[in-house]
């Protein structure tokens, strides 16, 4: 389940991608891998342009004798597929609309136009939107051997229902399996947020400083990755890592034991058998990647909401990012990195 917004009439998808098809196999437009994709073209291809997100006073749609202490507003947009009007949420009087064009211009300005858009899309029927830019910063572990490469993206995302702030994040992604490696590292900032009660304009300089776009985050990330890759682990240590992170339940309440066994079996299959582990199995780096790969591609949707799967694999699910941080610390503790 991908949760991307799709037209019921034409089958078009509110998603566009540069390069190979995404893990969910859907895209409205696929740009060539070596193509430089501008903000305008990505917005158009992903069906994110000209939404005209706007606030409509609730009082104008209610009987004249209704009294309001404070005004509430409906967040409305122009549907990108049929031109109709969609109501996305109801918000308070302090809420500020951020157009998709503003969000993407914000991301482009942070990098001073120095990157190409990689992907963009809409989920949850237009209530959440996202896009990613490729930052010209990558590193390869053991270039003449494992040749395991991690690339860097700037991810921008927000909501049109007040649930998510305007956010920009540095997101490392391992190329061979496309799983995101979002870890909190020391005091280096990885994300920057603007509440929907604030204006986006004028925040670019602050975002650049907070995100340390002099690549401090990726410099530290590369040091961590190399240390993990150079730390060998045996099968017992691998088992200790996963059983410490996910302890066996004391009681089989509501099938919890079976669920635990299935999780452990899946992790072992990824770690020992997946082609994504071919060059890194037997290292702490391999352990981290097997654990994060399960989170991105094999877990169940939270509360039955399939958009949570896309959010996790794209790198903007705070709960999953926090769990990835927990994974990193658990592995580092075991191998004393």
Helix/strand layout:
Blueprint (H helix, E strand, L loop, with lengths): L14 E4 L10 E3 L7 H7 L8 E4 L15 E6 L6 E7 L8 H11 L5 E8 L4 E14 L6 E12 L6 E9 L4 E2 L10 E4 L9 H8 L4 H14 L5 H11 L10 H18 L10 H14 L9 H8 L3 H18 L2
Parallel strand pairs: 1-2
Antiparallel strand pairs: 1-6, 3-4, 4-5, 6-7, 7-8, 8-9, 9-10, 9-11
Architecture overview:
This protein has 337 residues and is of the alpha+beta class. It has a domain at 226-335. Helix content is 32%, strand content 22%. It contains 9 helices and 11 strands. The strands form 2 sheets. Strands 1, 2, 6, 7, 8, 9, 10 and 11 form an 8-stranded mixed β-sheet that branches. The chain has a 3-stranded antiparallel β-sheet with strand order 3-4-5, with no helix packed on it. Strand 4 and strand 5 form a beta hairpin. Helix 5 (235-245) packs across helix 9. It is globular. The relative contact order is 0.12.
How would you summarize what this structure contains?
The protein is of the alpha+beta class and 337 residues long. It contains nine helices and eleven strands.
């Amino acid at each position: 389940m991908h949760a991307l917004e799709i037209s019921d009439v034409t089958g078009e998808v509110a998603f566009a991608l540069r390069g190979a098809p995404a893990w969910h196999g859907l895209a409205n437009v696929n740009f060539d891998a070596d193509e430089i994709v501008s903000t305008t073209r990505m917005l158009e291809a992903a069906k994110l342009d000209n939404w005209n997100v706007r606030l409509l006073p609730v009082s104008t749609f209610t009987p004249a004798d209704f009294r309001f202490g404070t005004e509430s507003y409906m967040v409305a947009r122009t549907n990108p597929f049929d031109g109709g009007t969609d109501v996305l949420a109801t918000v308070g009087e302090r809420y500020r609309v951020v157009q998709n064009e503003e969000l993407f211009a914000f991301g482009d300005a942070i990098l001073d136009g120095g990157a190409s858009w990689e992907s963009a899309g809409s989920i949850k029927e237009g209530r959440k939107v996202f896009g990613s830019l490729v930052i010209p910063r990558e590193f390869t572990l053991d270039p003449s051997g494992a040749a395991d490469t991690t690339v860097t993206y700037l991810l921008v995302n927000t909501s049109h229902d007040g649930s998510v702030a305007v956010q920009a994040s540095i997101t490392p992604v391992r190329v061979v399996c496309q799983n995101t490696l979002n870890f909190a590292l020391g005091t280096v900032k990885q994300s920057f947020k603007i509440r929907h009660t604030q204006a986006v304009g004028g925040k670019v300089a602050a975002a650049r400083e907070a995100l340390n776009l002099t690549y401090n985050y990726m410099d530290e990330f590369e040091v961590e990755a190399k240390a993990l890759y150079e730390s060998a682990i045996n099968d017992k240590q691998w088992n200790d890592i996963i059983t410490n992170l996910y302890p066996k339940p004391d009681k089989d309440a509501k099938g919890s034991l079976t669920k635990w066994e299935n999780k452990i079996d899946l992790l072992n299959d990824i770690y020992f058998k997946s082609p994504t582990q071919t060059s890194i199995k037997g290292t702490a780096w391999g352990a981290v990647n097997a654990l994060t790969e399960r989170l991105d591609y094999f877990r169940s949707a939270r509360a039955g909401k399939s958009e949570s799967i896309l959010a996790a694999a794209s790198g903007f699910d705070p709960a999953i990012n926090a769990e990835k941080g927990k994974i990193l610390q658990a592995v580092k503790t075991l191998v004393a990195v």
